[in-house]
Amino acid sequence: MAEEVHNPSEILPRAISWSVPIGAISGIIFLLPILFTLPDVATLLAVHSGQPIGVMFTLIMGFNAGGFSLVMVHQYVFASLPELDFLVFGIGMFCAISISCAASTATRAFARDQAILFHTHFAKVNTTSDVPVNALLLLTVIQVLLGLIYLDSSTAFNAFVGVAMMCLGASYAMPVAISLLNGRSDITDGTLSSRRARSCR
Fold this sequence. Notes:
membrane; transmembrane helix; transmembrane transporter activity
């Protein structure tokens, strides 16, 4: 996906580097208020949906509208305001579309580099819509299969979802580790090269 970024040799390393501290700081800002105002844990564990964050925010705020404003989904809010179901459904659809577009572009890039099976098929781009339709259909099938796993075992589904964050961290660490093991022999110079910093000393 680097080809869609202006000046990727400079922007992408900065984006990857800054994502770690920004994620850590925003995570701390999000978690600290929750830790100081956490309701009774037994009440949260007894939620039938298995998603206690909506109930937690409602209990913290003290009223349904406050919980809804924080999480945008809560069973008690929907019980009193059923027309909000469509709003949440629309938000979910927009998120799903954006994620599918990004993932299909990445899948097409992998296929173009012959990094996945049947790469000649999934690397094709529809000439009319300029969209990697085959890659998008592949991702749709995978998403449906993951949804079927949730119907049988929520624990297995949560394991698939949880491993995504570990894979994301590993994807950042792998190129750095390979570069260090090779003694940075494959990198002669770059926009953010540390040689320039050393020469300025």
